[in-house]
Structures are given as C-alpha cells and as structure tokens.
C-alpha cells in the first residue's frame, strides 16, 4: 500500500531519518517501535508531509507522494492522528464528527457517522459535550471515529494509548483490530507499549537513531533477541 524508499528527512537542517526503507501493507497493522527519540513520530509526520524530506520516495497507489502536502494526503484517504490536538477542542463531539466528513455529501456523512458510532458506541452519550472536556480515552475514540467518518484507507496513529490506563489501552488496541478486520484499514502504529502493540500487529519495524534497525513480521520482532533485551530494558540498543 505504501512503499518508503531511501527516505531521508528531518526538521530544517536537522536530519532525523536516515535511509529508511519500509513497506506498509494493505489491510494490515504495521507497528514501529524503538527507544525514545529514535524517530518514530518523525516517521509518521514525514509520511503525512509535516517534515522536510531531503531525498527518497513515498509510493502510494503507484505514485510518489513525498511532495504532496498534508491536506491533499487527507483527500487521498490517508489519516494521521497525532498524540495530542487530534480533535477540535471547542467543538462538540457531534460537530467534530460532522466536520470530519466535510468533503462528503450530507447523506454520506450521516451514514459514515452511524458507522463510526457503531464502532465507538462510547461516543453516543456524549455527542453534545465539547471535545476539550473529554477524557484521554474518549478523545482518542473521537479522533479514531473521525477517521472512520472520513472513510480513511490508511490510518497512522501516534501513540494512541499514551497516558491511558492499561485497561483503556487494551480497549484502544481492540478497536484498532476491529478497524483492520471489519473495514480493511491499513494501519501504521507507533507505540511505547511495544510488546502489546506487536502482539496485535502483522508486521513491525524497530527504529534506532533514525534508522531501521530490524524489521519483519510482528512475531519475528517479538522473538528477536534484541527486541527482548530492549523491552526488558537490559540494553538501550
Ligand atoms: N519539531 C521538531 N523540531 C526539531 N527537532 C525535533 C522536532 N520534533 C522532534 N524532533 C527531534 O527529532 C528526534 C526524534 O524525535 P521523535 O519524536 O520522532 O522520536 P520518537 O521515536 O517518536 O520518540 P518518543 O518515543 O520519545 O516519542 C528527537 O531528537 C527530537 O528531539
């Protein structure tokens, strides 16, 4: 679905990603893990067009979209959910859902909101609440629901379980699985909760210092000696 070729990117002159090659397969969950500061978030931002790309290609549906700006990528059904500020705080839950579907016609928006509320029934009772007053978990449900309203094909999630209780984190992981299995979404996930994230994933990448240190099926990563050491905190890699 998305093929990343020899990607070099960063912020201004500060290069963060070095020669990254990756394949994000259609209808699968791909998780990026790695130590703090290894460039995981920068990778997602780069795919969405929010950093400076020095060289390399991002192939999506046979086209190089490396230079396509974020608003056009959104129209190409690529959704990016940053860690924070992923909803409009001053608008209600309902307004957020409606705004997510602004490019669709009215009937279609209604239909998509219904679909989103079926996946996130937790939102049904809080439709009139301002998004800024929601708990972390509710906000995450809303942000993911908005991506469903938009009918996104690719969903890039930056640490969706950050600061959530283990129980709520588990609910988010279940929703991610549901979005893959029931809607065929292609999901790219960055997670601190590396072990659990890989357990629900098909494929994985381990980033170290802005480079792909190793890659494989999620199972291969989970069983990789280096990954075991890293997740046990024995080595910083
Ligand atoms: N807007 C920015 N401008 C300049 N440097 C930045 C910016 N955002 C991130 N960086 C730097 O890029 C490097 C990689 O950060 P990034 O957030 O991509 O790592 P990460 O692997 O997602 O880390 P974490 O797990 O801590 O979120 C860090 O050194 C960080 O300080």
Automatic annotation (TrEMBL):
GO molecular function: ATP binding; ATP hydrolysis activity; branched-chain amino acid transmembrane transporter activity
UniProt cross-references to SUPFAM superfamilies, sorted A to Z: P-loop containing nucleoside triphosphate hydrolases
Keywords recorded for this protein, A-Z: Amino-acid transport, ATP-binding, Nucleotide-binding, Transport
Gene Ontology biological process terms, A to Z: L-amino acid transport
UniProt superkingdom: Archaea
ABC transporter domain ranges (all copies): 2-234
Similarity annotation: Belongs to the ABC transporter superfamily.
Name by which UniProt lists this protein: Leucine/isoleucine/valine transporter subunit ATP-binding component of ABC superfamily
Organism annotation: Methanocaldococcus lauensis
